[in-house]
Amino acid sequence: MEKKRKAATVSMVPQEVIEGKILLIRGKKVMLDRDLAVLYGVSTKVLNQAVKRNRKRFPGDFMFQLTKDEKDELVTNCDRFEPLKHSTALPYAFTEHGALMLANVIRSSVAIEVSILVVRAFVRIREMIGTHKDLQRKIENMEKRYDYQFKGVFDAIKELLDSPVKQKREIGFHVKP
To answer: Which residues have a Cβ under 8 Å from the Cβ of 40 and sit 6 or more positions away?
Structure first.
């Protein structure tokens, strides 16, 4: 009965909530141990103990521990990390592959279901970033075409800007000395 209730609440977690928990740290898209623990329905301590028991499954590209400066920056920039302010423990950050590996380590139906949602969130963010890169490439192509089409106009403007300005005659009555 308990497992069914947890599974039902997991399936009700909106994808946007999971995507909102994905952070960019050290140039990698990651989720913190505390956020994954909430999603997997375990405490952060239990999650980190499971990781420590299975350390070989979490190489550096799957998981890394934040530095004190990184933790302080998170606390400063995000209100939801306020509880970390006085914590002496440094949080762990899990990449997409690390979050997926957690499902194997925790071994529960909730963890399996959540890991699928987490991977989908990472994939969706990757697609959105790819879309932005496509958009950026299209804009650059348009700028190239724009520059080529209006090269004559730009050249004329540059010529006008570069040409010497003639001294204007003063207007009015002047007495010559």
So the answer is: 47, 102, 103, 106, 108, 110, 111, 114
